[in-house]
Write a structure and sequence with these properties.
The protein is α/β, with parallel strands linked by helices. Helix 5 links the parallel strand 4 and strand 5. Helix 6 packs across helix 7. It has a 7-stranded mixed β-sheet, with helices on one face. The longest helix is centred in the C-terminal third of the chain and has 33 residues. The chain is built from 7 helices and 7 strands. Helix content is 41%, strand content 21%.
Length: 209
Amino acid sequence: MLNRVRIAVLVSGGGTNLQALIDAQRAGAIPSGEIVLVVANNPNAYALTRAENAGIASAVITRKACGGQEPFEAKLAETLERNGIDLIVLAGFMSILSESFTRRFENRIINVHPSLIPSFCGQGFYGLRVHEAALDYGVKVTGATVHYVNEIPDGGRIILQKAVEILPDDTPETLQKRVMELAEWVILPQAAETVSANILKIKEAGKTI
């Protein structure tokens, strides 16, 4: 068996989904992969502290410092390739990636979104906005989705979904917390393992990923 799939987690903020991945890795729930790098596009992201506490290497790459989206993506790609990254996990990464970038890493980028896609997703749907929209619309069930990333925001093929019931007294904040705890933190590590195992099979077969 080859070495485990090398995983990079891209973050922008607090890193609660990163922590769920770190905890799952410690518990042996991602046997086919290993988180070896955390990349933040925000130098103040608490996720960087979580990475440091877990002994995981990290890097900060910002669009402002790079001078625009194209050089930002070029530096990001160079950093990922230099570290031999096989799988990229977007965990609260607040930057839309271009078609040229997503095609470069086709079927190797996954994202977690706090709704049951195709509901409440796409451009402009992130953070509390997703949960506000679900409550405003009056749906009785929401949840989370892990999907492959392509050039369309939240438009890639679905890997896993988990439903969460909406309660009568829910606020966007309480719903966000419950969706994270009951869905996002459960299916993101599961999806990371599923995709890592698949990448490993491809590599063991001597094919390029």
